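Most newcomers find our protein records easier to grasp once they have seen one. Sequence and backbone structure share a record, each on its own labelled line. To make this concrete, we reproduce a full record directly below:
***
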Amino acid sequence: MTQQVAGRLRGKVALVTGSSRGIGRGIACRLAAEGATVVVTARSADPSPSVRNGENHLLAGSLAETVQAIEEAGGIAIAIPADLENPVDRDGLVEAVAEAAGGIDILVNNAGFADYSPVETMGEETFDRTVEHYLKVPFLLSQRAIPHMRKNGAGWIVNIGSSTGLSPIRPFREYNKTSGDVIYAATKAAQHRFTQGLAAELLDDNIAVNAVGPSTAIRTPGAAALLPDGYETEPVEYLAQTVLEMCTAPAAERTGLIAFSLHYPWVTDTVVRTLDGRDELPRREPPSWSNPNIRPTGL
């Protein structure tokens, strides 16, 4: 299923949340390389701390750096800082995007908060923040974006999922016993179901709703501390390409999928390109140890 390389999103406006670094930056760069005007957003314009277990951890990456990367590759980017935990910032974000860029065609709900802890010892605040980031925020941003997309006659919503949201491998691995990812994984499972349900609601409006998660894991600044030593990770380009594929077809053709970044390109013969769109990357087969509950063409 080789696709045209350049300009597949020309004339489209995309909002990518949590795009100051990591997965969000990769997705923003890939969409911009295909001609989209990309609005990038994060808590602040400068590098901002991630709060884990009540402590601030300053991570590398800023919106200015993302905008610079996109512009240096010939793309168009607009930075709109917004704290998605702040109701005022959150409620006004989509309208600010529409005003600054002339509308919104694509929404990528990528921003997240991961603070792993066993259920027995997890604080209620951590529980609430996790649910808010992975279910409430995508719900609210989608709700505000839908009227703009309906007016345009088409739209694409992509939620960033996770293989942790699938049933764990049995017999249980040591990771499942000790990682403390239960609440994170439960909200990702809920996000998958939200994706499929919203896809059904919006099918007749030609608004596609899909989810894309890493087949294994991506070593981002935020995720590095959560990954066990020696864990094999994957490049962000494969996930960014899979997100792009979910933003290009009519809803009747491709909606309601829970797809994974190595599995989907491998089984569909999708060409994966660098984030700037200039070079083709090698085919990359999903590892044999990835979650067997992943369906290669999407759930």
Summary: The chain has a mean pLDDT of 91. The CA atoms of residues 78 and 100 lie 8 Å apart.
